């Protein structure tokens, strides 16, 4: 019998071997071996002899089974794989240990699973051989084979077993089905390179959005995975402490689009795989999906996995290391072959990166909300109108940081005139906002009793000396005169205001001074007295205006600012400020790295 097994094995290696005939011959030899061994066992009388025969029988059967030239699966009555031979493991691209104990229909595509289950049950009860054409889901892709099911009896077993023997399908393969001639090494290298490319692309896409917008990150990640790794991608996120479906992406055809739209409205139910993975925080890889209800059932009743023809599945938690934000699920059909551990590692890494972006995005939004509230309290919603003048202000926050910047401006009434102030606190964030509030309200309060800019700024310097941040500020005190306004400007280390005379002459004021909060004894204020005639314009601005830079790190600068002011000098001051803001945004391509603030006043009478 061993010689016969060797002959069959050698015959299978011939180029023109008839594997169908070899299959029938192997089954016939297997039947004869069982009959011979049963007969031999009946002639033994002593216990020792029976044991020797049993051992010999097992060795012989194991040899015949393992060395058979065709893939063989030994199945129990419920279809569970009891044992596979070497050819069967090679066919499915898996080890015998992985295949053993799993339902044989699990390794078949969805269209033939039910048929295979029926054949196993039928052969077990009737004893008649049955043949069926099956698509097996191997690690190299789907393989179409003819499977012959036969019942056998094994000594010592209370129930018969079923042998499933496979042979290549007799159907002529289409040109696109023919395997490409690549070595196992080339295929492994290509797979690793592809996974590295997917990871690199995903990381780049996630980091490309500096605002960490959650919806953008989720959509980009899902589309990449659907294009490169899976047929279907499900992303479920926690909203109000409930796991809800956020996105479903499948193949790009009309039916799949309708299914995806339906599944997006189907939140993962308790007990489904995404819910279990989210609750446990542990990933799940089902290389061969054995439960079509793993993703729940559709509203119409069929299992979701059956609806999307899933045969292999990965589900991983979206865990950032501090909390789990949801679950990421990928499925493939038999066309792409089953997922493996390398796929699981890749998806886990991507899920971790996506979870970190989700965490950063939510923190970003919380900080943005705080900054908006602070900004609403520190920047006036509208400015009061000064008799004999028109005034307008503009503020544009930095686009690269949600932390509240230190810019502030205000127009306020004093005892006998009006006050203007524009300042900038060093740094960003909540601490800077607190100093901003102190400086703004402090200057306004002090000016009610003493409108002189030098004295107001000096007292404000003393108030801020214990803070860890300094403040640059410029304050103007305006008093009416017979025609126009009289103005006193005090500067504490701030960029000098620009004066635009009605005849077109443009100049900067003297500026100067020391920032508030730096020095207690050596503090000084730069002071200048000016008369403003009707048609004259005063333009105050923060240091973020001239420091705006383009992609080549070229600064906007004071000269460009003066050119913009000259070009729009005859426009209303509100339009003048908006023209400067538009020029800044165009120059930097919308990428403001610091807040910009402007305050413009024009004398009208």
From TrEMBL:
Hydrolase among keywords: yes
PROSITE patterns hit by this protein: PAS (PS50112)
Keyword Membrane: no
InterPro entries per UniProt: Bact_Sigma-Reg, GAF-like_dom_sf, PAS, PAS-like_dom_sf, PPM-type-like_dom_sf, PPM-type_phosphatase-like_dom
Gene3D superfamilies: 3.30.450.40, PAS domain, PPM-type phosphatase domain
Pfam families found in the cross-reference section: PAS_8, SpoIIE
Keywords recorded for this protein, A-Z: Hydrolase
Spans traversing the lipid bilayer: none
Domain of life per record: Bacteria
Domain (PAS) ranges: 57-102
One GO molecular-function entry: phosphatase activity
The name this protein goes by in its record: Serine phosphatase RsbU (Regulator of sigma subunit)
């Amino acid at each position: 019998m061993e010689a016969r097994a060797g002959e069959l094995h050698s015959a299978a290696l011939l180029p023109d071997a008839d594997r169908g005939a070899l299959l029938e011959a192997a089954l016939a030899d297997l039947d004869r071996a069982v009959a011979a061994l049963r007969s031999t066992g009946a002639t033994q009388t002593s216990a020792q002899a029976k044991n020797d025969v049993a051992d010999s029988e097992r060795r012989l059967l194991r040899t015949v089974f393992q060395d058979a030239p065709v893939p063989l699966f030994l199945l129990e009555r419920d279809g569970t794989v009891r044992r596979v031979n070497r050819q069967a493991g090679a066919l499915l691209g898996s080890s015998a240990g992985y295949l053993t104990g799993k339902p044989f229909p699990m390794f078949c595509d969805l269209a033939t699973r039910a048929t295979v289950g029926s054949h196993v049950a039928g052969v077990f009860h009737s004893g008649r051989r049955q043949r069926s054409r099956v698509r097996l889901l191997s690690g190299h892709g789907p393989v179409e084979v003819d499977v012959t099911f036969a019942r056998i009896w094994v000594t010592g077993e209370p129930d018969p077993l079923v042998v499933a023997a496979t042979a290549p399908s007799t159907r002529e393969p289409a040109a696109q089905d023919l395997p490409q001639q690549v070595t196992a090494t080339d295929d492994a290298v290509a797979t690793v390179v592809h996974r590295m490319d997917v990871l690199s692309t995903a990381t780049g896409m996630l980091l490309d959005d500096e605002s960490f917008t959650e919806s953008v990150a989720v959509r980009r990640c899902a589309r990449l995975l659907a294009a490169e790794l899976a047929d279907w991608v499900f992303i479920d996120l926690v909203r109000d402490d409930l796991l809800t479906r956020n996105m479903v992406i499948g193949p790009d055809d009309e039916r799949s689009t309708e299914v995806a739209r339906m599944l997006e409205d189907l939140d993962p139910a308790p007990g489904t795989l995404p819910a279990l993975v989210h609750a446990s925080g542990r990933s799940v890889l089902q290389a061969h999906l054995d439960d079509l209800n793993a993703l729940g059932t559709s509203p119409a009743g069929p299992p979701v996995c059956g609806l999307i023809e899933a045969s292999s599945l990965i589900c991983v938690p979206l865990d950032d290391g501090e909390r789990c934000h949801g679950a990421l699920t990928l499925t493939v059909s038999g066309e792409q072959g089953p997922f493996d551990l390398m796929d699981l590692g890749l998806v886990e890494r991507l899920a971790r990166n996506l979870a970190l972006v989700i965490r950063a995005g939510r923190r970003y939004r919380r900080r943005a909300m705080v900054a908006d509230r602070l900004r609403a309290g520190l920047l006036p919603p509208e400015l009061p109108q000064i008799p004999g003048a028109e005034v307008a202000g503009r503020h544009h926050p930095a686009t690269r940081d949600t932390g509240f910047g230190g810019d502030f401006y205000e127009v306020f009434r004093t005892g006998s005139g009006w006050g203007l102030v524009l300042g900038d606190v060093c740094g960003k964030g909540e601490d800077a906002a607190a100093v901003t509030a102190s400086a703004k309200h402090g200057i306004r309060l002090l000016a009610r009793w003493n409108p002189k800019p030098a004295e107001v700024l000096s007292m404000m310097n003393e108030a801020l000396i214990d803070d860890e941040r300094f403040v640059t500020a410029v304050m103007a005190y305006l008093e009416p005169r017979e025609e126009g306004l009289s103005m006193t400007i005090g500067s504490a280390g701030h960029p000098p205001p620009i004066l635009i005379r009605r005849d077109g002459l443009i100049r900067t004021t003297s500026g100067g001074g020391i920032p508030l909060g730096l020095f207690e004894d050596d503090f000084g204020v730069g002071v200048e007295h000016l008369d403003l005639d009707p048609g004259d314009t005063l333009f105050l601005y923060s240091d973020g205006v001239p420091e705006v830079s383009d992609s080549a790190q070229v600064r906007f600068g004071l000269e460009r600012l003066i050119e913009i002011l000259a070009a729009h000098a005859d426009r209303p001051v509100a339009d003048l400020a908006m023209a400067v803001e538009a020029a800044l945004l165009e120059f930097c391509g919308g990428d403001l790295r610091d807040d910009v603030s402007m305050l413009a006043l024009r004398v009208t009478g």
